[in-house]
Amino acid sequence: MADKQTPGIYHRRIGDILVTAISDGFIDAPYGVLQNIGEEEAEQILEASFQIVPPRISVNCYVVRSAGKIAIIDTGSGDTMGPTLGQMPSFLELINIKPKDIDSVLLTHMHPDHSNGLLDSKGNIFFENAEIIVSERDVAHWHNDSAMAKANDSQRERYFKEARRQIAPYMQRRKNALGEVVPGVHAVDLSGHTPGHTGYIIESGQHSLLVWGDICHVPDIQIRKPEVTMVFDTDPEAAILARRRTFDMVSNDRVLVAGMHLHFPGFCYVTRENSSYHILPESWNFEI
Ligand SMILES: [Zn+2]
Fold it and tell me: 5 by DSSP, 3-state: which?
């Protein structure tokens, strides 16, 4: 370990439930993925926040161990998005969990950086014993031939066709993301970014955590400017509403948050002063 970075693994206990953040890696995104903001302003905000420009976006997954069951929320990108991503399998191995030990795969939505880890590099099923929890609205959307026909070539290949390929071996063992999906884990509708975009609330005793999926992609920008959307939002207006509602809820109720694109290890709080929001990373816990 002397000259290598530590593994992208971080444990956080929520009551009796153990949540482990696993980094799938990161992606350096072009400014063009952002909408409702000019490149110059985006760069100013990132530089003022001491962030890498153009935006470097963490991609996180979360393993949830609850009542003897093992679940994983999102799967990372498999080997489909280049060498800075696709780390999930090696970190899963480091915490002594085999893919076949996973009982449930919970998806926040079907996009390459979240669901392309459903298959291994040879195209075989990765979580051979798992049921899959995913919103039926996302499954229907990505299987909608007329929506696919309207998409441009890259969207058709990267989103529609890839979503269909990734979920194919799990289709017979999928459950809609509604209500309690794993002991202590409830699905919540945060749609907008995709038609079935889903968050998961993890609760045990007095403790809780909201895994908010893609409520923001570039936190340093979107926490200041929730109206900034992404080119791949299927309904940008609904995405803005979901983001504002979620920021209001977690700041009012002082809810701990985890997110797929929060800077790793991706646990934070959100505060609100007048009409502006701030993001506060949670400090490192030495005990789990
Ligand atoms: Zn994403």
Answer: coil
> Which residues are registered as beta bridge partners of 278?
271
Q: What is the tens place of the pLDDT at every residue in 202-257?
A: 999 999 999 999 999 999 999 999 999 999 999 999 999 999 999 999 999 999 99
Q: What angle do CA 44, 48, 51 make, to 5 degrees?
A: 95
Q: Quick check: is 288 in a domain? A: no
Q: Which two tokens stand for residue 58?
A: 């963490």
| Residue 117 · residue 107 · CB < 8 Å | no
| 144 located within any domain | yes
CATH number at residue 201: 3.60.15.10
Beta strands 131-134 and 104-106: pairing type? parallel
CA of 286 to the centre of ligand 1 (A): 29
Q: 141: domain range?
A: 9-281
Distance 2 CA to ligand 1 centre (A): 32
